[in-house]
Write a structure and sequence with these properties.
The protein folds into three domains: 83 residues, Elongation Factor Tu (Ef-tu), domain 3, CATH 2.40.30.130; 144 residues, Threonyl-trna Synthetase, Chain A, domain 2 (Threonyl-tRNA Synthetase, Chain A, domain 2, 2-Layer Sandwich), CATH 3.30.980; 98 residues, Diaminopimelate Epimerase, Chain A, domain 1 (Roll). Strand 19 and strand 20 form a beta hairpin. 31% of the residues are buried. The longest helix is centred in the last third of the chain and has 32 residues. The chain has 383 residues and is α+β, with helices and mostly antiparallel strands. Helices cover 35% and strands 31% of the residues. It has eight helices and 20 strands. The strands form five sheets. The protein has a six-stranded antiparallel β-barrel. A five-stranded mixed sheet has the order 16-17-18-20-19, sandwiched between helices.
Length: 383
Amino acid sequence: MTRKLYYEDSHIKEFDAVVRSCAERDGAFEIVLDKTAFFPEGGGNPADTGTIGDVNVLYTFERGGEVIHRCGAPLEPGEPVHGQIDWEKRFSNMQNHTAEHIVSGLVHRRRGFDNVGFHMGAEGIVVDFDGFVDDQELSDIEREANEVVWRNVPVTTSYPAPEELPGLVYRSKLDLTENVRLVTIEGVDVCACCAPHVKRTGEIGAIKICEAVRRKSGVRIRMLAGDRAYEDYRKRAESAAAISALLSAPQDDMAPAVERLLAERDALAYKLGGLKRKMIRQEVDIIEKAEGDLLFFEPELDGKELQLLANAAAEKCAVAAAFSGDNGAGYRYVLASQKTDLRPVVRDMNAALQGRGGGRPELVTGTVKAAREEIERYWRRRP
């Protein structure tokens, strides 16, 4: 069985070992060493990667007590090798995993809720709790979690004997009876876990709860810690600086500046809407009444404005057909009539022009994928 150095010291970055076996499988090579610092995927923690000699370790997993290193090239059994894990990735995983223990422990201590789902990826940590915690309390928990980091309390592991377990209080998703590894964050949390952790909470640096979403009777949170929290802060700071420059406003005044900008936009949109309505009425007023149909193409009009145009024009013709769009994206349409039942009309047009839509006898709406030339040709030939 592989000697698991990551349990002896989670901060081992390099080690010497001997290759015990190497087998090709699915285009890669599964290598077993007599000892390893590569942590296999498990307990919600991603697998370590790195190198063994000159060979890249692509993935690490456990099978029957052996740690399997999935590599891009073979190694000779019996060969002494030097292993080196991707320490930046491992340390980030430890920062984030220990941070999750702190937050989950605080939620459990405050509300009694359990962590019932956990995933750690590049986007951060996602945790599901079986009870709802509102935004204000999560903010308080985030603050308390960072106070745990600032106190720099020790993080230790232990393997209690099976007979000790009934008398211990600890968090666990499984009903374990033996080979239980407990991770204790002094004064905060005790949890069964198989993954490597930091040695003191100060190594985490910072903890940030990014968002929370209600899920049935519980809540799902996404959080970041350590280098990932720092990188997230850096990107947000850059975005805030860029937005501040665009608004010509200090960062502390960005929200009021955006509110003013939105108010100005709404006022302009209202004014533009009034001008468009006036333009539509003027356009229809100069049209002579006709026995046949009237066809309009107005790419700048939205759905309500298109409907206004069609309804106004319907007073002067059999069917008013108004289209807005272009040949690439397709066209939105509104058909209006005061004389003709439009339901059979729209069925025929949709079939001819790859359209979808419908409505009332006097008004129908929808879209077509045909080009303008095809639409014009259809309306010239419409019975």
